[in-house]
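Ticket opened by: R.M.
Priority: normal
Category: complex prediction / small molecule

The reporter submitted a protein together with zinc ion and asked that the result be attached to this ticket for the collaborator who will pick it up next week. Submitted input follows.
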Amino acid sequence: MYEPIIGLEVHLQPKTKSKMFCDCSTQYFHKAANSLVCPVCMGLPGALPVPNKLAIEKCVMLGLALECKIQKDSKFDRKNYFYPDLPKGYQISQYDLPFCYEGVIPVDIDGDTRMIRITRIHMEEDTGKSQHEEDKTFLDYNKSGMPLIELVTEPDFVEKKEVTSFAKRFRRLVRYLGISDADMEKGQLRFELNMSIRPVGEKGLPDYKVEVKNIGSISVLEKVIDFEFDRQKQILEAGEVPAQETRGIRDATGATVSQRIKEEADDYRYFPEPDIPPIHLSDDFVEEVRQRIGELPYNKKTRFVEELGLEPSAAETLVANKEKAEWFESAVEGVADKAIVAEIAKWFIGDVFSLLKSDKEKLASLKFSPKQLQELVILLKGGKLSGTLTKQVLKEMYQTGNDPQQIIDEKGLAIVSDDSELEGIAKKVIEANPKVVANYAKNPNVVKFLVGQVMRETRGKADPNKSEEILKGLL
Ligand code: ZN
Ligand code: MN
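Result attached by the on-call engineer:
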């Protein structure tokens, strides 16, 4: 029996207008190759880099959200290596003074929360893109100099599902905070895996480690873990030790191939970037960024469950994105009754979203307000509307944005709970269904059928509880 030991490196493109050290546009998707470049991101001699403040803000925000310490006196460094997609011959990155360090991200596994430690989060620039065709290689530098946030975890993952949970939670977090769209198909979020395996029960790290680079989807990440687990296990069972190497993936199957054997650690000959002065992050700057974080999605979920009494599954759906969570929170504002809160959640997740979905519309295009949904649900819970009527009123609200009470008045959709009116209808129903009525003595449940008939007569407007009472009286 073996278990994996995994550490992750995550590369995330934060959402900014311009690149990390120049004012070239970051919107390179579907643009002509080498159309968004300048002397800085092409690495021409004499060009001077100027750091992008917004990118640094986003890096610090991520660090604060993950409980990192912030390196208030920091700097950029040159990481020297040669590759055709790196025209300068070095990447501007951060070596010994990353902006953020020693954080933590909780992951939920089968109802318990495990902590994954974050070693560091630093800021760097992306490289260009090479495209190989037959015997030629084409280079596009539009991506060169894109801001990149790199997060490195400790080797704390010992199960595949921890990695999956981390990846999903991380993606939701950065979207929630507006740090990045994290669109994996566009390469905005990429994973690198450091993995070895050891016999279950053994502590400490094995004396080898395999690195798998450039994984661009969560499902492939899972497949790579399975593939590497089997591959490394076979080698260990044959009495050998897997090579310390860098591997890559060729396709979505998750199969890895060796790219480079690492005899010793890479030597990038880091040194401080001489063209960018050291960076000081003031206390005010850090505090101001902290203020903008607000409540994090997993804390919000816990609060929805513990304070609002929601089911965990409903809470999870509601915190899927910030907009949804905030809309819901406005809808339950001032409501103390947990049954009403739960009912608002039910209508919001269910009917409101299916209306939006059928029109392919976004939450922002809703014509009615959260407060109006609250009013509607209060009318329902107060017995002023039946479920059927509520659906009708909601549909009308969806189309017009009018108040529920106004719709009820105008369309005559109020529930019929007037005794004499209901009694008249009940009598009619009893007369029309002599066979059913004859069965009542033997099977009192037939009254439900008769209630249904009253509902039909009133097109769903009758108060069902009252109707049943009246029917029973008459029978
Ligand atoms: Zn540029
Ligand atoms: Mn990197």
